[in-house]
Amino acid sequence: MGFKKYLARKTFVYGITFIFAVTLNWLLPRLMPGNPIEAMMSKSGAVNDALVKFYEELYGLNQPLWKQFVNFWVSLFHGDLGYSILYNAPVSSIIKHALPYDIAILLPAIVLSWLVGNWLGALAGKNKKYDKYTMPLFYFLASMPYFWFAMILVYVVGVKLGWLPYSGAYAPDLVPSLSWTFIKSFLSHWILPFLSLFIVMIGSWAIGMRNMIIYELEADYVRYLEALGASEKLMTKHAYRNAILPQVTGLALQLGMMVAGAIATEIVFNYPGIGVLIMNAALNQDYFLLQGAFLIVVISVLAANFLIDIVYAFIDPRVRASYTEG
Amino acid sequence: MKRYLALAVMALMLGSVFGFASVSATSEYPRNETLYTANSAPPTNANPFQGGNIIGLDGLIFEPLAMLNFMTGELKPWLAESWKWVKPNVFEVKLRPGLKWQDGQPLTAEDVKFSYEYYQEIGLRNWTKLGLKEIKVVDDRTVDFIFNGTPNYQLWQLQLFYGWGQGALIIPEHIFKNIDPKQIPKMTFLGDEQKYLVGSGPYKLKEVVQQQKAILVRNDNWWGNKVFGEPAPKYIIQLYVKDNSQAANMFIKGDLDVGTYYIDIVQAKKQNPNLVSWLEEPPYFPPVAPVLLYFNTKKPPMDNPQFRRAIAMAINPEQITKNGPISGKPAEIPFGTGLLQKWAGKIGLDDLVKEYGWQYGNIAEANKILDELGMKKNADGWRTYNGKVIELHLVTCAGCSDWISTAEIIQNQLRALGIKVVIDKYDWGAMMEKYKKGDFDLGLHWAGTFQPTAYAVYNALMSKDGSANFGGYYNPQAQQILDEFAKTTDPNKEAQYIKQLSEIWLKDVPAVPVYMATLFYEANTKYWTNWPNEKNPYGVPIFWAKYGTWGTALALLGVKPASATQTTSSQPSTSTSQPTTNTPSTSSTSSGGGICGPAFIVGLAVLPLLLRRRR
């Protein structure tokens, strides 16, 4: 009973957040000065009033703002995300074709770096000697900008040494298919972008974990366990379960943001993901692509949060208790 | 569980050592038959009416009646063999014999009539506004465009080829008559809709990998093989490359054959001597159209032509080309390279400039003019107008580094004159809004000069509601000449009008050309040669979508295979420090053991995982 109520309340809060966030996403680009269609025309060298009018009508931008807002929600419930101004294609198709590449890079990078980073962090938290040597490395990794490390990888491994391809998601003379050649090409193109994210991410996970472990090992309950003569393994086990909680939240947020793409990585490795598309949409006031992309981001961040709220209730009895009793 | 994961990663890396080493060169697209180009926007649309964003869709797949060579200003008959005004209001186009569609059907005058009418039905063009009353098919190869009264001949001429808001591509009636024009604007012509893409040109769209690449394949039955010769590349692949430094790497490695990217061409040439561009010396890239410094001619003191002239004199383009963006020196009149080449001699530009023009960088003379205008300097050395210090706001775009550095140089140059310039940066949309509302003192843009004909340039810049007349310039005399100009097709008369308009331009200074903007262009001669350049401008190095019939198609049809390709082995590729392979798939590098490096790196990360369990 209590858990159901908890779920219902969460769902309600998330529903409100969703509507509010999507509305903001709709409104904010439209508050920017300038007209996207005129800007597009003048960038191409042609300033043509008739064409501007044609495109404004096509995108429904000639209608009053409130009507555009109604149209937006109506088409949203029909599953229509609109038609990109910048790329002249349905937003859903753009997202559909770009997102898999981001997920292919980001999902393994985030999950593996989380696992490895937590491991290394936990080791560092327990072992002073190990800590002394690895912490500078972790801080170095964590403070390293993605694009910088990626550029080094491109230059050293890709261009100078020529070990691995550094551009695109697969060889330029291939088209995606289920052939062995394509898969091999895809994997070899996948390694460098993956590494560029994976290695940098390890640093921050490890730092977070190490600090939490140290904090937990100093906590009263560990002292108590120690006084009772518990084994080190048992103490670590309890400390670890407490220390991992904030890391789980961090992981969920990262996974939620995954659909926004990895802009720096995509640019440096020329990887066909969604991040660059969103960036260009923002720069060019492509309302529809922005709306669509942010809609996906909002949904996935909310979904990740929602999931983590539920998972929390399972892995942390205190949370469950506070909701059911409160 | 985690051990399995680690093992899986290790297995993957090990697999890669053996696997990737053998990525074979058995590609469907042999390198020496494939031309690689790239665009900084992904291919997402192949709509021939809006031009899509696939290079060659306009020009190589669908063709216009005529092609423009933007670099020489020449209009080249294409599907049309000839055209002329048979009556003051009847424009007759004669098609070439033996035209056919890619599906084998003949291309006739009916298709031309259908295409032009279809564009209007979609709403993309308004020929009626240009005075078009009726399109009449005379016979299979002849079509008459009949106008109400005397039309604007000069504007109509621009409708023979295709661009943003102008002209049409000829489309097959037997395919498009079944599609409702209202559906067209939001169709992408990809996926199932690709079947409608039956053009008449030398290439067909083979495949589009959405947002990544577009592949064109040669149409061996092109009608033009007899007229223009068969194009050399069997395939043209357009990649999506966003970043300049990526493009630079790809050019250096020889993975890209041609493109429009801002790369350090001097450095790139050192590493790959096969790279060429438009010029052999700086600025290397083709100078195309001048960037103008606009005056808001509605606002004092910019409403005074003498004041504008003084500013024009204070500007020194030489300094801009030296310290600013990569650029060429502009002429005083707002013409690009192609138009200058075509008209400068005919209108006696040198004499005109000597008589009415100004001398760039002549601060002394500029100071004298301002003194005569009574704009005295105050104690701090700033000029005053009506007792107030003159402070001009130069509006520019925040992301345009070339314009910003130009604006800063101009700011310095005008300081010598005692005129204070404040640079205001807005993003593109906001900047255009400012220009449109007249909410600026000085501004930079090239919209008025990046135009196909001399008439189009002066019409955009000097007519009352010209599309690029941001400064609100108006001169009844210029307007009258433009009206007359519109009614002529006689080259001698055209020259005379251009001369008169140039004279007014030089006297009135509605805007100042400050530098000749370049188009970035680099080509690789390893696989394909005979790229257009300054000495051989048969085509135009604009590798963007929607400018195909401005000369890009001509350039792609003119390339020749490099004979060296067949003898690559005898010619060691010393161009790059690392071993180059014949396939662009860099994964197939000779050393299979090379994979050990990354495997080692991952191994390092995985090692603690494995060790931990054993403890």
| Mean of pLDDT of chain A | 86
Class from secondary-structure proportions of chain A = mainly alpha
Number of strands of chain B: 23
Strand order of the largest sheet of chain B: 14-20-13-19-17-18
**Taking Cα atoms only, what radius of gyration of chain A do you get, to the nearest Å?**
24 Å
Radius of gyration of chain B: 28 Å
Distance between the termini of chain A: 13 Å
User: Overall 3D geometry of chain A?
Assistant: globular
Count of extended strands of chain A = 0
- Low-pLDDT residue spans of chain B: 17-25, 565-598
Largest sheet of chain A: none
Query: Strand fraction band of chain B?
Result: 15-25%
Helix count from the secondary structure assignment of chain A:
14
Total number of helices of chain B: 19
Model description:
- The complex is a heterodimer of chains A (326) and B (615).
- Chain A is an all-alpha fold and 326 residues long.
- Chain A is built from 14 helices and no strands.
- Chain A starts with a helix and ends with a helix.
- The mean pLDDT of chain A is 86.
- In chain B, the strands form seven sheets. Chain B has a six-stranded mixed β-sheet with strand order 14-20-13-19-17-18. In chain B, strands 1-10-9-8 form a four-stranded mixed β-sheet, with no helix packed on it. A four-stranded antiparallel β-sheet of chain B has the order 4-5-7-6, covered by helices on one side.
- About 7% of the residues of chain B have low confidence.
- Chain B has 615 residues and is an alpha+beta fold.
- Classes of the chains: A mainly alpha (326), B alpha+beta (615).
- Chains A and B meet through helix 2, helix 3, helix 5, helix 7 and helix 8 of A and helix 1, strand 10, helix 6, helix 14 and helix 19 of B.
